[in-house]
Amino acid sequence: MTTIVVLFNLKDGVDRDEYEQWARNVDIPSVRRLEGCGGFEVLRGEGLLGGAAETPYAYVELIRVDEMTDFTTAVSAPAAQEVAAQFREFSEGAIFMVTESIE
Description:
Number of strands: 4
Number of helices: 3
Mean pLDDT: 97
Structural class: alpha+beta
Number of domains: 1
Shape: globular
CATH architecture: 2-Layer Sandwich
Order of helices and strands: EHEEHHE
Distance between the termini: 10 Å
């Protein structure tokens, strides 16, 4: 199964609570409904294991993709593009990494 790992921070001045409310109410349900999506979760970085340093990214998204062709088509639709535009209003420096399990 393909997993898209998204690493990002919030833009300066974006309220964390406002972003997280939007993520819970709009982003998460919208992505989970996309054709080809097998699961989606948003994780907030809380710190580095064994260290006091801050995480390099405030958030991680894990998008499980059952069928990449269907998913790619779904994210190109106008409704998905609107959600993506809203995401860009909150986030900066997002990295979208396509991964495959080695098992």
